[in-house]
Fold this sequence. Notes:
The protein is of the alpha/beta class. The chain contains 14 helices and 17 strands. It has helices spanning 8-17, 47-57, 66-69, 73-89, 103-115, 117-122, 132-152, 162-168, 226-241, 251-267, 281-290, 356-367, 376-383, 397-400; strands at 4-7, 93-97, 124-129, 155-159, 176-181, 190-194, 202-208, 215-221, 274-279, 296-303, 310-313, 316-319, 323-327, 334-337, 349-351, 371-374, 405-410. The strands form 3 sheets. Strands 1, 6, 7, 8, 9, 11 and 12 form a 7-stranded mixed sheet that branches. The protein has a 7-stranded mixed sheet with strand order 4-3-2-5-10-17-16. The protein has a 3-stranded antiparallel sheet with strand order 14-13-15, with no helix packed on it. The longest helix has 21 residues, at 132-152. It is globular and about 60 Å long. Residues 245-272 have low confidence and may be disordered.
Amino acid sequence: MSKTRLLYSRYMDRFLYDSARGYFSTQQRNQLGKLPSLIDFRKLKGLGDYRAALEEKYPDGRFLTPSEIFRPFYGMSMAQFFVEWSRGTGGSRVVEAGPGMGGQANAFLLFLKTSYPEIYRSISYTLVDVSPFLSRRCREVLSESHAALIERGNIKFVVSDIEGFLKNSSPFGEKTLLMMFEVLDNMPHDRVEFGPGFSDPRVTLVETDPDFSHRELVLEPLKDHPAVSELFEAWKEYYHSQPIFKNKLNPFENLFPALRRAAHRVQNLGRSPRSAVYLPTHFHCFLKAASRHPNLSHLMSDFSWLPGDVRYSGRFEENNAPIISTKVEGQKKFVDFASVCEPEFGTADIFFGTDFEFAQFLIKKALKVSSLSLSPREFFDRFAQNDWGLTKSSFNPMKADFSNTQYLFTKITR
Length: 414
């Protein structure tokens, strides 16, 4: 049987989004979850009650995102951000990439409907999702409360990845806010392996038979893959410009990897250890597509780091490594995998932490615009009302939980 080689990013794209077998593309495989009922934060005493309530409501065999856990306050906060952005720019158009089941969008629109009805009536809201199943589910959710906007064409649903949507759209004539929540982590990456001083760089591919039943990782010279090579050069430029301690929110998260890395290098002094880095190829391509739209602003949020994303094995070090995980059906148990070749094709989530400083570096190069990155506490202090998500003890999990996330937004590009 003939075999083919796919770049790591291309294989990840097929694994997650293949129309027939992709993890996010079918109802049978997709593990994105929804709370059976909202968490009433006002009735909770504090952290302990919050954790107990989340454990009780967490659906078996499913994953929940922050936008779902903190519904409706998460979406209401994004709507408040939009209101302030709209007042500053005059824009009334929103594009949301990867809206999932529509929980964030519904809370966003309901808040506008009750608090800013004039903005609600004039808004244009396009929901772009690569999954036909999730796009249909999103339409069902929004049809319950926003049928009139859908009928008038103010709310539209597009089945596409966001890069393709931007490439196939004429430059937006009006100022537009593009929102992406928990999307960056699932954007396909490429893996580049290299020696001391970035020497002998090689790119990772997945060699597979047509039905993906037998797979293995192989290496090819990086120079044979120009798009990945371009991003690797940008990463080297960024790498050389950064101090070793970058994470201001959680310095210990970078301190311990830094100490392990130092010990690793001392231990292997003179032994020419090799390293690997996972690079956000599709995010880079997305930015190039976004550069065609000078009226576009961005609001995005995702994990800024993941546990174990710096890994060591003997003389080898991996940076920004993914988590490859699935949940056992009917249980709250996770099963993790060491390689994309281990799980059956399309049966696990593959997600990465986002180096938001590198993301800002790429945004500056591609869009020629500055950006700001905030912690959850900084963002919700600025755009949420004080009592949203607040418990009796004044503990607010929307600000305190998921401390390994960041909120990044840009200005109008030109």
